[in-house]
Amino acid sequence: MPHPLARFRRGTLTLAATVLAVATTTSTFTAFATDAPSTEAAQTAAPSSFHGVNWADPRDNYASDAVVPSGLSVTDDYGTVYRKAERMVEGFRENLGANTLRLPINPASVGTAWWNSYRAAIDAATKSGDKVILSYWESPTAKDGKVDDVAAWNQMWDTVTAAYRSNPRVYFEPMNEPFGYTSDQWIQVCADWLARHGDVPRSHVVISGTGYNDNVTGVGASPALNGTLLSLHFYGFWGSYKTEAEWIDNLLPRIGGYAYRTIIDEAGAPMTVGLNYGAHNGNVFTSYFAAVTDIARGMGMGMVYWPGLRTGDAYSIESLGADGRLHDNSASGVSQLKWGYGFGTIPPVNDQPPAPAGTQVTQTASGRCLDVPGYSTASGTQLDLWDCNGGGNQSWNYTATHLLTVYSNKCMQAGTGTVTAGAAVAIQDCTGLPAQQWTVNANGTITSGADSSLCLDTTASGTADGSTVVVATCSASVSQGWKVG
Question: Is the pTM of this model over 0.85?
Answer without folding.
Answer: no
